[in-house]
Specification:
Blueprint: H1 9-24, H2 33-42, E1 53-54, H3 60-63, H4 66-85, H5 95-104, H6 109-136, H7 145-165, H8 172-186, H9 192-200, H10 207-238, E2 258-262, E3 265-269, H11 272-277, H12 279-282, H13 291-294, E4 307-308
Antiparallel strand pairs: 1-4, 2-3
Helix pairs in contact: 4-6, 5-6, 6-7, 7-10, 8-9
Length: 319
């Protein structure tokens, strides 16, 4: 027979908030690198971010935060788009009237519509500028070629989302813009007429076209964009974080200490000439097909430790 007695209900009630807190936050506030790493690994939201990042990633002048700005604009589009869906009807007889209701009847309707519209324009511009930044800084070079291709696909999906959303107000501007756009697509070689029919569902812009553009705009394209964006962020982690100039990872000549093996003797050298002589020692290893998933590995001693803990990082600088 055990001598342990069951805790009283009052004691259990008093300890309930603390138990709930510790079930969510399993570690106390960290005060060391090991503690920060443990907290990051056991927290659902924190584990999405690296435990440490390179100092160059904190420079706002390098990335300009364009990637994260694009993500936040997409988040605003999702929120405002869901709210607009409560009032919008994809029908040629009701769509334009619902737009008028949003403008003059629905509380904050014009605010929601304008926020959605300007966020869409801003996302197209920011994604394009982000691609320009990546190109000008050489961030498309190995090992980031695959992520560059994903970025191009994200730009195309963003443009197509803007194009499909243009028809939904169902006014004269939207009608003729889609008429011209789909007519241009119809002149594509070989499959032009088929592409135009797939987009419109008919030979002219009408109810079928409005319904198809609505489904593409609110369901198909956002799902594709979300999937590509998730893979895009994942590849940034696997490719060693944000790209940076080569000199950021170079060993300073006056501080480098290289171990050179010369037969039975081991020489510790600190000069730039010795670093060049030891280049074969510092070459990156290859890990076969697993490198496609794991990305480059950190070579201890091959690059200076210029990483910082995430406690010193602003979220907008992480992309």
């Amino acid at each position: 027979m055990s001598n342990q007695t069951a805790p009283s209900p009052w004691k259990s009630l008093v300890e309930l908030p603390a138990n709930v807190w510790h079930s969510i936050f399993r570690n106390p506030l960290p005060s060391s690198d090991l503690g920060r790493a443990s907290t990051s690994f056991t927290n659902f939201f924190l584990h999405l971010h690296p435990v440490k990042v390179h100092r160059n990633s904190l420079k706002a002048s390098y990335t300009l935060g364009l990637g994260l700005i694009s993500f936040f604009l997409f988040f605003i589009l999702v929120v405002t788009g869901v709210l607009l869906m409560f009032y919008y009807v994809p029908s040629t007889t009701q769509a334009y009237d619902r737009m008028l209701d949003l403008r003059g009847t629905v509380a904050f309707g014009i605010f929601l519509r304008n926020m959605h519209r300007w966020s869409a324009h801003g996302m197209v511009a920011i994604v394009f500028l982000h691609m320009c930044r990546v190109f000008l800084t050489g961030s498309y070079k190995p090992p980031r070629e695959f992520n560059w291709v994903l970025g191009v696909l994200l730009l195309l999906v963003t443009l197509f989302m803007s194009f499909t959303g243009y028809l939904l107000p169902w006014d004269q501007l939207a009608f003729w813009a889609i008429t011209v756009g789909t007519s241009i697509a119809g002149y594509a070689p070989v499959f032009g007429k088929q592409i135009k029919f797939i987009l419109l569902g008919d030979s002219t812009v009408g109810q079928e076209a409005l319904l198809r553009f609505y489904v593409l705009h609110v369901a198909v394209l956002p799902a594709i964009l979300s999937l590509l964006a998730a893979i895009h962020f994942w590849r940034i982690r696997k490719d060693g974080g944000l790209s940076r100039p080569a000199e950021e990872d170079a060993l300073p000549a006056e501080m480098a200490e290289v171990q050179i093996v010369q037969g039975p003797a081991v020489v510790m050298a600190t000069s730039a000439a010795a670093v060049n002589a030891a280049k074969p020692v510092l070459q990156k290893r290859h890990y076969g097909i697993q490198g496609l998933v794991r990305g480059p590995f950190t070579k201890v001693g091959n690059v200076p430790d210029r990483s910082v803990s995430p406690g010193r990082i602003f979220l907008w600088r992480s992309l």
